[in-house]
Amino acid sequence: MLKALSRVGAVLAACLMFTSWSLAAPKAAVALEPFTGYLMAHFTGESANGEQIYLAHSDDGLRWSDLNNGGLVLRSTVGTRGVRDPALVRSPAGDRYWIVATDLRIAAGTSWSDAANRGSTSLVVWESSDLVNWSAPRLINVAGAIPGAGNAWAPEAVYNPETGDYVLYWATNSPRNGVTKHRIWYARTSDFRSFTAPQLYIERGGSQGIIDTQIVEVPGAVGGYRYYRASADGHITIEAGNSILGTWTTLGNLSHMGISNGTGGGNVVEGPMWAQFNGRNEWALWLDQYATGRGYMPVTSTNLGSTRNFRTRSDYGMGTNRKRHGSILNLTAAEENRVLGRWGATAPVNRIQSYNFQTRYVRHANLDVRIDANVSPAQDAQFRLVPGLANGSGHVSFASVNYPGYYLRHYGFDFVLAPDDGTATFAADSTFRQVAGLADASWSSFQSYNHPDRYIRHYDYLLRLDPIGDAQSRGDATFRVTS
Predict the structure, then answer these.
(1) C-alpha distance from residue 394 to each of 328, 388, 417, 446 (Å)
(2) Which terminus of the chain, N or C, has fewer Cβ atoms within 10 Å?
(3) What is the DSSP string of 343-377?
(4) How many CA atoms lie within 13 A of 74 on its CB side?
(5) Quick check: helix, strand or coil at residue 471?
(6) Is the domain of 198 the same as that of 297?
(7) Pairing of strands 267-268, 259-260
(8) Within a domain: residue 378?
């Protein structure tokens, strides 16, 4: 899905809708260090925490590993409080980065009809100078000035050397010439704060809409063109041009490969996502097989000048998290080291063994938490002990292995497995200090962060948070962290 930004009107009244246009141009492009890896930003789906920002890393551009132990990396606290379709943008000088995303949270109970016709006309933006430390999210109302605009979906942005700024483009559903459908709009920006007024960018004929568009710049104009764009418009249509805001030539679609966006049947996909392989003239176009739920697949080419040059691949892996519409950034070694240093360390998978019922392990079942023997499926009893959400020093939180983003927390002194909702209360309820076992110092006990007079213990096999005062409760509150 596409991205766009709004511009300030010259008149004072227009300033209520748009921010003023900044004439400050980005720094000149520099020769970046050689690329060594790849970073993908994505969301995972319509679950409680699925519509947030997740990251994945690849060494070879085909096999991906989830970062941050599979947990979300950035959470939207503005607008609908959910984001989809994130785009990663790097400045020409390599000194500034942005994530721009759709302001939409279907998991909150919003229908697709409401989202398309009465949804947010804003996008969500984060900004960083190092890909690691990100600003608070902010809303930019890019589509508010489009008559009858119902939404702003699937943003993307590309630097335009002809104008010295960025073209931010996205899809908006609105009436025009008597037809209401999704079209691609764009605005220009130099800082992702101030924008020109939205302009129509791409429109298909008749009632055919278009939502997901992404552009890739091809060094050396391999295939005869400097830019290529892929769009979901019933097919996956490939176009080419030598100017971002100039004329584009339609090269064809992927119907000959049995791939479409619905009109052509076959393998129905969306969310086209470009990436060049590091160090060579070869490109991957990743396509989300949403109709079958199989997730992203790559088709690759060494010459984008003809759609007949694409080939399917089977030598790829997508990690554990389901990856929905996002974007890929090629990383320099310095960028890769920073990203992996912050989110790449993977905590080991552990089980939590009961001291006084040593055949039983802590597990979740229907989001309740208890100790059981012979746990099936085995991952229900597997957790990662990660730095405490409320206090990372000397404290831990228990992250579920098979429910990424879910943690053990106490609620009314009972234990549940629940998704991190980003609140301070959740963080405190799911943080514990690991201390010497109360029944055996060679084992462990877990003291509550926000109720330090209470410890995790089992009672009638169910996990609780209780004060500990006798030998029985000390045994119940003692556990071994094991593989």
Answers:
(1) 35, 8, 22, 11
(2) C
(3) HT--PPPBEEEESSSTT-EEEEETTEEEEESS-SS
(4) 29
(5) helix
(6) yes
(7) parallel
(8) yes
Determine the residue type at 194: S
Residue partners of 278: CB distance under 8 A and separation at least 6:
34, 35, 36, 37, 38, 61, 330
Report the candidate in 407, 404, 406 with the shortest Cα–Cα distance to residue 446.
407
pLDDT over threshold 60, residue 42: yes
Q: Which two tokens stand for residue 375?
A: 């746990």
**How far is it between the farthest Cα atoms of the chain?**
79
Residues facing residue 217 across a β-bridge: 227
Using the CB atoms, write b or e for 108-126: b if 16+ within 10 Å. eebeeeebbeebbbbbbbb
Q: DSSP code of 195?
A: B
Residue 3, in any domain of the structure: no
Extended beta strands in 76-115, E state? 83-90, 97-103
CA pair distance 414, 245, nearest whole angstrom: 58
The three-class DSSP label of residue 10 is coil
- Are residues 300 and 390 both part of a single domain? no
Q: Are 1 and 84 in contact (CB under 8 A)?
A: yes
What residues make up the domain containing 366? 351-482
Same domain, 363 and 331: no
Which of the four pLDDT bands, split at 50, 70 and 90, describes residue 10? very low
* C-alpha 231: how far from chain center: 20
Q: Is residue 6 part of a domain?
A: no
Give the span between the Cα atoms of 237 and 307, in whole angstroms.
9
Contact 72, 86 (CB under 8 A): no
Do 384 and 275 lie in a common domain? Answer: no
Bridge partners (DSSP) of residue 120 are none
Same domain? For 329 and 401 the reply is no
Under DSSP, is residue 340 helix (H, G, I), strand (E, B) or coil? helix
Please give the tally of structural domains in the chain. Answer: 2
Closest by Cα among 255, 317, 322, 260 to 291 = 260
Task: Assess contact for 307 and 313: CB atoms under 8 A.
Answer: no
CA distance 170 to 153: 6
Looking at the fold, whether 318 and 370 belong to one and the same domain comes out as: no
What is the dihedral sign for C-alpha 259, 263, 266, 272?
A: positive
- In the prediction, which pLDDT does 26 show? 64
- pLDDT tens by residue, 247-296: 999 999 999 999 999 998 999 999 999 999 999 999 999 999 999 999 99
- Which domain CATH number covers 47? 2.115.10.20
DSSP 8-state class, residue 334: H
- Count the Cβ atoms, other than its own, within 10 Å of residue 207: 8
473, amino acid identity = S
Residue 34 located in a structural domain? yes
